């Protein structure tokens, strides 16, 4: 019998349905694997009982001859940005330490209603701010991939959904939720050779999901392939009256709509994405993607998105501005930590709590956001950024006159080593150069694996199946595993 | 209209006043959550996860709150903005769980309108003035802090947090305490007619921020101060008077007025600087990204307009056209409940002038005496109409009607029933009365002598005896 | 764009984040760099362009005026509201005494 944790979402779902295995066997296999993969630090909280309860429900339903729910028997990982009833939720920030929601986010509730179970809460960049998972208050997440240079550098799993990407890539769960504000699903998916979809803004409810930047935040799915992502997203998405920006539209049957036939599809190649100094390898990979799509019947057209280079600066005004306000509620009064220096008044308590509770990157963004909104600067920064945002959205509108989708690289570089970019905020921000424009326009975007990194040497997927001990030993084992079925991590492709 | 001036040492000063009135919108649920709005509940029992700003919570607006703001705007003939938007006002305070108040700065739902005020009830049209309203916007109320429950802690109750407010901002058109009071009373009256706010100032349903500045006649506007959260008409008028006087003193002593937030202390009848809020001036307003633009369609606006009642000015004009005096019309329309009661009386077919006379003197007098509001008047319009009918057809004299009315107030019975039960029909048989008087005088010859000797007080005794002998049927004809 | 230490401290105070003089001094050039970088936006001609108000062509939905229609957004849940509070007493949240 194959290792059950090699199965993806579709494989598990179908196998549970046709009785190839029991949901409980699946849950147990992943639970064991999660418990043995602590070295990756992908999980902040493990919730085996949740996964087992869902599996038992699936098995009972099948035994009773009932129609199984869409995700019956599928255990998943839940990014810690989603509030989960009775399960600690921190957004990987010290400021929310000990916070146990009394409510369930709409997205997670939708998944439980579809029969899924939860293996645990996934680590992430603190408040979803970061591109490497190094801003978590609870330690870096490590990618299961290794460079094949003989070195042992720990690689970044991308961010902010780095716990999700690492866990899926390491087969700790067949799928995971992610959230994407400026690339936080797509970039980590690209770094770890998995697939990730950020749907249209408003497709997934934001209710119960801890906010970073409200006009950009969107939940999505992360899994090994597009089909699994589609299945997961169908269960997550849907109109929610509790979210004023929720789209009042039926959820498409994405899984049923999948086909390899791209006849008649017009694929746009935005010329402005050929940025100066783009590595030849990415160029080549992009060309390969173009060829694949051509082979599948698509027509390729060049399009222009003239305001592309302004997307990132606009994003780094809008997102921090919204964040500075969204994060004002973390003040030590109603939840999370409270820092009360002796003799401190209310405002001192706020300042102490927030200084202690927020990590450096979160503080940096709150500071930027506070600055750009402050008296005298609002129009020059915020209003101008929102105008540029209109222009960026208009660029896409114009492009849709000649094409149906766009094909671009996801990230400008391969997965970098932990610590490699964390000293330079702007260098880190530049990771999102290709993902941010579609975020600003609220458009759906997906990252799919495109191949292996030549120069960065082969990357390897982790497999912790046999790792009974921890850390280094587990990591070493991970390197021995299945390089052959690994996708090139960094060079994903974005289809907008 | 106002020639209100402050006499300073350097000459006369004018006062310039603008009011920002926060009026709690009448609705069952809060502006952005489904928690109840009722006054006086146990602490934190009317708080949703949204109102407590738990992580991941989102606002969804209550249609009724929007509707009430639009109806209010229509009632003051204001511009209704079909496209408006909510903004966040960012500041940190323990009564503000989100760390921002959702309000409307850049694109309020209601634009410019006006309210006509009058300083002379007897001659309302001659002493009228039109006060401009700059805007009305919708926003969230904050929670409440209690400072006196614990030696070192303040307690936070979020029951009010998220309740819908309308902020009604006047232009700086008010020039005296009297005008300011008249404006506030008129605004309150309109809100209560519309039904968009109960106007209950003791419960905090209406609070005013009072912006005051002074200047020499003809000068540019002076620097203003804002005295926050003043919660009665009397206090608002006192703030205008005290603050203007204080500013004149400061300026005449060569000082400058700081643009600042102040607080009114009713015990000392003075305003004080609120230093605690001083650094909060940079509110970093920006559009709330959780809320899309609010777009009102024509059907919604049509329904709002159709649901508006007759408003005080229109009603007063109608009453005057019916032959009611201007003074009475003003008094009858000042409070919506009185006007409603009076309209019902008119609907019952009573002649307007008689109805107005009786209502403003007899009914209002009785209510005043018994400390009752017209909403719980023991005498209904139908009962009053019956009483006035008995007067009109001569069954009851004016004075007998007064007695009947007294009984009605006490028992809640109808006029005809009181008359019937007590046999209080008017006797016009003067011969019978004279005979009784003769009997009374014969039986009390000694007292007659005393009376004639100058004991005037005995007069009442004779009346009483005569009435007793008549079985109470004698009305006071003298 | 140069940002001085005093500005950093003013912004930190507005954002209610306690900051030491050293941290403010360290952060000043860093913020200056980031702000300098985003000021690239100045070069975009935005005359006649409306700032974006809604990322998807959608307008605000309004809900009915019904109390506790959805338990997730309704009241009457004091235990839940106070469940995570660092200090809650007698049904209130408690904070250091505020002098108004
Ligand atoms: Mg004010
Ligand atoms: Zn206000």
From TrEMBL, chain C:
Top-level EC class as recorded in UniProt: ligase
Keywords: ATP-binding, Ligase, Nucleotide-binding, Protein biosynthesis, Transferase
One of the protein's GO biological processes: regulation of translational fidelity
Reaction(s) catalysed by this chain's protein: L-aspartyl-tRNA(Asn) + L-glutamine + ATP + H2O = L-asparaginyl-tRNA(Asn) + L-glutamate + ADP + phosphate + 2 H(+); L-glutamyl-tRNA(Gln) + L-glutamine + ATP + H2O = L-glutaminyl-tRNA(Gln) + L-glutamate + ADP + phosphate + H(+)
Its EC number(s): 6.3.5.-
InterPro entries given in the database record: Asp/Glu-ADT_sf_sub_c, GatC
Single Gene Ontology MF annotation: transferase activity
Annotated family: Belongs to the GatC family.
Job description of the protein: Allows the formation of correctly charged Asn-tRNA(Asn) or Gln-tRNA(Gln) through the transamidation of misacylated Asp-tRNA(Asn) or Glu-tRNA(Gln) in organisms which lack either or both of asparaginyl-tRNA or glutaminyl-tRNA synthetases. The reaction takes place in the presence of glutamine and ATP through an activated phospho-Asp-tRNA(Asn) or phospho-Glu-tRNA(Gln).
Assembly: Heterotrimer of A, B and C subunits.
Protein name per UniProt: Aspartyl/glutamyl-tRNA(Asn/Gln) amidotransferase subunit C
């Amino acid at each position: 019998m194959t290792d059950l944790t090699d199965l993806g979402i579709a494989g598990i779902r179908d196998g549970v349905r046709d009785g190839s295995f029991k949901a409980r066997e699946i849950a147990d296999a992943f639970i064991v694997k999660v418990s043995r993969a602590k070295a990756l630090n992908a999980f902040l909280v493990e919730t085996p009982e949740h996964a087992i309860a869902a599996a038992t429900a699936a098995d009972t339903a099948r035994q009773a001859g009932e129609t199984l729910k869409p995700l019956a028997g599928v255990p998943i990982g839940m990014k810690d940005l989603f509030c989960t009833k009775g399960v600690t939720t921190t957004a990987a920030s010290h400021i929310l330490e000990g916070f146990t929601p009394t409510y369930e986010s709409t997205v997670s509730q939708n998944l439980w209603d579809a029969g899924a179970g939860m293996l645990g809460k996934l680590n992430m960049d603190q408040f979803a701010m970061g591109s490497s998972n190094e801003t978590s208050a609870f330690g870096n997440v490590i990618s299961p991939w290794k460079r094949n240079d003989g070195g042992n550098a720990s690689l970044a799993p991308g961010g902010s959904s780095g716990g999700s990407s690492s866990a899926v890539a390491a087969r700790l769960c067949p799928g995971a939720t992610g959230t994407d504000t400026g690339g936080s699903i797509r970039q980590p998916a690209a770094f770890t050779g998995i697939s990730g979809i950020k749907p249209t803004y408003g497709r997934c409810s934001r209710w119960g999901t801890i906010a970073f930047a409200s006009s950009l935040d969107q939940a999505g799915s992360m899994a090994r392939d597009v089909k699994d992502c589609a299945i997961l997203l169908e269960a997550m998405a849907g109109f929610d009256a509790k979210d004023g920006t929720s789209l009042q539209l039926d959820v498409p049957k994405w899984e049923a709509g999948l086909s390899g036939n791209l006849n008649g599809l017009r694929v746009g190649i935005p010329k402005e994405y050929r940025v100066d100094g783009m590595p030849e390898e990415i160029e080549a990979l992009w060309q390969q993607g173009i060829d694949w799509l051509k082979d599948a019947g698509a027509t390729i057209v060049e399009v222009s998105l003239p305001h592309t280079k302004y997307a990132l600066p606009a994003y780094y005004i809008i997102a921090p501005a919204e964040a500075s306000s969204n994060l004002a509620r973390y003040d030590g009064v109603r939840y999370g930590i409270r820092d009360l220096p002796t003799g401190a008044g209310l405002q001192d308590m706020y300042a102490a709590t927030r200084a202690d509770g927020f990590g450096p990157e979160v503080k940096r963004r709150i500071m930027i956001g506070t600055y750009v909104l402050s008296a005298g600067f609002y129009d020059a920064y915020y209003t101008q950024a929102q105008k540029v945002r209109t222009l960026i959205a208009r660029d896409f509108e114009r492009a849709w006159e000649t094409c149906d989708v766009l094909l671009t690289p996801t990230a400008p570089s391969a997965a970098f080593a932990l610590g490699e970019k964390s000293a330079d905020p702007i260098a880190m921000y530049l990771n999102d150069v290709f993902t941010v424009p579609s975020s600003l326009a609220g458009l759906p975007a997906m990252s799919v694996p495109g191949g292996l990194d030549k120069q960065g040497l082969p990357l390897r997927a982790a497999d912790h199946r046999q790792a009974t001990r921890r850390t280094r030993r587990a990591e070493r084992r991970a390197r021995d595993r299945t390089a052959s079925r690994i996708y090139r991590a960094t060079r994903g492709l974005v289809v907008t | 209209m106002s020639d209100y001036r402050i006499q300073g040492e350097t000459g006369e000063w004018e006062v310039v006043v603008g009011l920002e009135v926060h009026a709690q919108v009448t609705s069952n649920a809060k502006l952005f959550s489904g928690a109840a709005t009722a006054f006086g509940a146990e602490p934190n029992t009317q708080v949703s996860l949204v109102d407590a700003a738990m992580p991941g919570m989102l606002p969804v607006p209550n249609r009724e709150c929007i509707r009430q703001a639009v109806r209010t705007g229509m009632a003051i003939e204001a511009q209704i903005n079909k496209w408006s938007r909510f903004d966040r006002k960012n500041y940190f305070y323990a009564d503000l769980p989100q760390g921002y108040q959702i309000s409307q700065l850049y694109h309020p739902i209601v634009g410019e309108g006006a309210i006509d005020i009058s300083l002379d009830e007897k001659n309302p049209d001659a002493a009228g003035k039109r006060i401009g309203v700059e805007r009305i916007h919708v926003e969230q109320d904050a929670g409440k802090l209690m400072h006196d429950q614990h030696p070192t802690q303040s307690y936070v109750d979020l029951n009010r947090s998220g309740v819908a407010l309308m902020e009604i901002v006047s232009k700086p058109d008010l020039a005296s305490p009297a005008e300011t009071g008249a404006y506030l009373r008129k605004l309150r009256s309109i809100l209560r007619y519309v039904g968009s706010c109960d106007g209950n100032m003791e419960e905090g349903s209406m609070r005013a921020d009072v912006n005051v500045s002074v200047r020499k006649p003809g000068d540019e506007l002076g620097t203003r101060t804002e005295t926050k959260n003043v919660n009665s008409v009397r206090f608002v008028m006192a703030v205008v008077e005290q603050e203007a006087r204080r500013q004149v003193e400061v300026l005449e002593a060569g000082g400058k007025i700081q643009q600042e937030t102040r607080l009114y202390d009713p015990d000392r009848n003075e305003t004080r600087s609120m230093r605690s809020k001083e650094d909060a001036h940079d509110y970093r307003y920006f559009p709330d990204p959780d809320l899309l633009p609010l777009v009102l369609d024509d059907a919604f606006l049509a329904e709002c307009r159709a649901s508006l009642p007759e408003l005080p000015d229109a009603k007063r004009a109608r009453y005057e056209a019916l032959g009611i005096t201007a003074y009475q019309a003003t008094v009858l329309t000042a409070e919506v409940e009185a006007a409603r009661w009076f309209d019902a009386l008119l609907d019952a077919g009573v002649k307007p002038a008689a109805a107005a006379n009786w209502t403003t003197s007899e009914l209002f007098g009785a209510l005043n005496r018994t400390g009752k509001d017209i909403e719980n008047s023991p005498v209904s319009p139908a009962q009053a109409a019956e009483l006035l009918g008995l007067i009109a057809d001569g069954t009851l004299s004016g004075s007998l009607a007064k007695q009947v009315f007294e009984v009605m107030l006490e028992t809640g019975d109808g006029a005809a029933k009181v008359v019937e039960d007590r046999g209080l029909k008017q006797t016009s048989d003067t011969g019978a009365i004279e005979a009784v008087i003769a009997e009374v005088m014969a039986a009390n010859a000694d007292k007659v002598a005393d009376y004639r000797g100058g004991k005037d007080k005995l007069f009442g005794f004779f009346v009483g005896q005569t009435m007793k002998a008549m079985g109470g049927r004698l009305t006071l004809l003298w | 764009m140069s940002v001085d230490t005093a500005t950093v401290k003013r912004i930190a105070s507005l954002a209610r984040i306690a900051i030491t003089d050293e941290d403010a001094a360290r952060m000043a050039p860093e913020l200056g760099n980031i702000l300098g970088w985003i000021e690239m936006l100045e070069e975009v001609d935005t005359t006649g362009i409306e700032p974006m108000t809604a990322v998807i062509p959608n307008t605000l939905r309004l809900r009915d005026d019904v109390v506790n229609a959805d338990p997730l957004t309704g009241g009457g849940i004091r235990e839940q509201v106070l469940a995570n509070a660092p200090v809650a007493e007698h049904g209130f949240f408690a904070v250091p005494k505020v002098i108004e």
